[in-house]
């Protein structure tokens, strides 16, 4: 029983460490809806994994990456407003995933755990996958930190300074896609964006530099994991929603701080 709790804690902290800096950029660049779209598409990845009998995590990663690239291409064409495009893809991919799984009656699926996470069923293999992909994501964020920050502050100025804006924006979307794919096990399809946005929004009230905000967001997310997992363990509540609720409470408490 202690092993189960340890694996859940390690997985949650591993996800929170990466969602902190990523969430900071999502808040700065107002990309929350983009995160929702990728999160919903992960359910399509689950359906394809079951249909093709392939590794679930790999399938979700591939689908999220492909959708991120598709979004980049469609946004460049500018035939539709970004929020309209995201809304169409978000709900379409979620609907396709749900319908596909409904058409597989012989496959037993715990839909609640997919939608809201099932942290207490995390295995050592899941933990290794989370930390492996998380390390890659953190490494890419550190490598791209300066151009990402420059582009976030002023995109046209970044172009003048020689920043390959399209390539950097695409890289950010792909990193977010990677993290969403591995975070699904922790908080589920419907709550992934909350873990990206809420800790970053909380950290924003205390940080006076971008670097501090990224670090504080990771720490806030980790604290939410600790509190939420404890509540889930002792009060027998769902782990994913408990973590998100803990993050929301921390944000509410941060509002007490005077500007």
Automatic annotation (TrEMBL):
<protein>
    <recommendedName>
        <fullName>High-affinity zinc uptake system membrane protein ZnuB</fullName>
    </recommendedName>
</protein>
<dbReference type="InterPro" id="IPR001626">
    <property type="entry name" value="ABC_TroCD"/>
</dbReference>
<dbReference type="GO" id="GO:0010043">
    <property type="term" value="P:response to zinc ion"/>
</dbReference>
<feature type="transmembrane region" description="Helical">
    <location>
        <begin position="213"/>
        <end position="233"/>
    </location>
</feature>
<comment type="similarity">
    <text>Belongs to the ABC-3 integral membrane protein family.</text>
</comment>
<keyword id="KW-0813">Transport</keyword>
<feature type="transmembrane region" description="Helical">
    <location>
        <begin position="48"/>
        <end position="73"/>
    </location>
</feature>
<dbReference type="GO" id="GO:0055085">
    <property type="term" value="P:transmembrane transport"/>
</dbReference>
<keyword id="KW-0472">Membrane</keyword>
<keyword id="KW-0812">Transmembrane</keyword>
<keyword id="KW-1133">Transmembrane helix</keyword>
<comment type="function">
    <text>Involved in the high-affinity zinc uptake transport system.</text>
</comment>
<keyword id="KW-0864">Zinc transport</keyword>
<feature type="transmembrane region" description="Helical">
    <location>
        <begin position="85"/>
        <end position="107"/>
    </location>
</feature>
<feature type="transmembrane region" description="Helical">
    <location>
        <begin position="182"/>
        <end position="201"/>
    </location>
</feature>
<keyword id="KW-0406">Ion transport</keyword>
<feature type="transmembrane region" description="Helical">
    <location>
        <begin position="127"/>
        <end position="145"/>
    </location>
</feature>
<keyword id="KW-0862">Zinc</keyword>
<keyword id="KW-0997">Cell inner membrane</keyword>
<dbReference type="GO" id="GO:0043190">
    <property type="term" value="C:ATP-binding cassette (ABC) transporter complex"/>
</dbReference>
<dbReference type="InterPro" id="IPR037294">
    <property type="entry name" value="ABC_BtuC-like"/>
</dbReference>
<keyword id="KW-1003">Cell membrane</keyword>
<dbReference type="Pfam" id="PF00950">
    <property type="entry name" value="ABC-3"/>
</dbReference>
<dbReference type="GO" id="GO:0006829">
    <property type="term" value="P:zinc ion transport"/>
</dbReference>
